[in-house]
Amino acid sequence: MCLVTPTTGQTITCKAAVAWGPKAPLVIEEIQVEPPQAQEVRIKITHTSLCHSDVTFWEAPVEVFPRIFGHEAAGIVESVGEGVLDLKPGDHVIPVFTGECRNCKYCKSPRTNICANYAVDALRGTMKSDGRTRFSIQGKPIFHFMGTSTFSEYTVVDQAQVVKVDPTAPLDKICLLGCGIATGIGAVWKTAKVEAGASVAVFGLGAVGLAVVAGAKIAGASRIIAVDLNPAKFAKAKVFGATDFLNPKEHDKAIQCVIQEMTGGGVDYSFECVGNTSVMRSAYESCQPGWGKSVIVGVDGSNKMLEINPLEFFSGRIWTASVFGGFKCKSDLPDLVDKYMSKELEYDEMITHTRPFSRINEAFSLLQKGESLRCVIEVEA
What order of strands is seen across the sheet that includes strand 223-227? Predict the structure, then answer.
């Protein structure tokens, strides 16, 4: 039996931070949020944080505007649509930008976390079921983002992208598991499968890069080389487990050559957490020939092509990428929350700022200036 709330089946009027165009400051608007349709969930967002991917697509000159961004958040289920059996009003949840339908051949396979029905689609601005939005302002449609749109007091998400979690877990902390922290940790544990004693190089020390550092330390890596153009980030990287620190601007040779010399040929694993094709090449070449594995974690929004001579692959190095750290959201995310609650996984120091919803544009400014790792935005009044 589905629980009924006072707003079940009704359109809710609430506040949302609307982007009216590329690079335009977000505007706090009163919007209307329709009830969830079949297999959908309406969530009251309590906390959301700002990820670089939000900025990347906010800056992109695409036609999917006006739009509500946000994809790293936590909240409480307000109501569910027909056919939703694993969630109910009052459940504490994390919406995730990539889903798990549990029915397609990919979801049934242990070899991937890609879902045939709910794969990442940053350019889709409507709900999957009927191609319509659930947001509007006085009848004018407002588009969705990544299937989550968490810069709103209420949002509607496909049930395959909503994960029920421990209700005692602090929503202002576990919201980070909706993207950055899970992505970095999983790239180490699930995609690369870093083993004890391995050597690792991490390119880019934002929140995702630091999560990679933390994941490598937990995995037992013996050497973790942190690479960034901003040496101010090295102190934080040391806290999470980095052992060596390199600023490419301080060397007169390519940074991959420096790493090769430091390690006797290259590291066992490298991770690119910047989203830059040149850095991706450097990370790949910093790996040990014969068995080194390089994982692309950062998203390059420029559409630049990676150029490589196929003969380079005969070096024995492996080049791959990681989406949401290889985690299946519904199957794996509750366990990450449990690890956070048991202090096996600690990342509170990545939250460098908090802001009320009304000051969300300050979060964008902090991230763009490199002054913030994660800014948690308090959506709930």
Answer: 244-246, 223-227, 199-203, 269-272, 293-296, 318-321
Cα 95 to Cα 104: distance, rounded to the nearest angstrom? 20
- Report the chain's terminal Cα–Cα distance, integer Å: 30
String of DSSP letters for 15-27: EEEEB-STTPPPE
4: pLDDT strictly greater than 70: no
Would you tell me how many other CB atoms lie within 10 Å of the CB of residue 46? 18
Nearest partner of 186 among 53, 359, 335, judged by Cα: 335
pLDDT at residue 48 in the model: 97
Instruction: Please tell me the predicted confidence (pLDDT) of residue 249.
Output: 95
Is the pTM of the predicted complex or chain greater than 0.85?
yes
b/e string for 81-106 if b means 16 or more Cβ within 10 A? beebeebebebbbbbbbbbbbeebeb
At 1 the pLDDT is: 43
Greatest Cα-to-Cα distance within the chain, rounded to the nearest angstrom: 67
Structure token pair of residue 7 = 């707003």
By the 8 A CB rule, do 64 and 185 touch? no
Q: Tell me what pLDDT residue 174 has.
A: 97
Strands (E), 262-333: 269-272, 293-296, 318-321
CB proximity list for 319: less than 8 A, separation 6 or greater: 284, 293, 294, 296, 308, 313
**For residues 372 and 350, is the Cβ–Cβ distance under 8 A?**
no
Mind listing the pLDDT tens digit for each residue in 50-95? Answer: 988 898 889 888 888 999 999 999 999 999 999 999 999 999 999 9
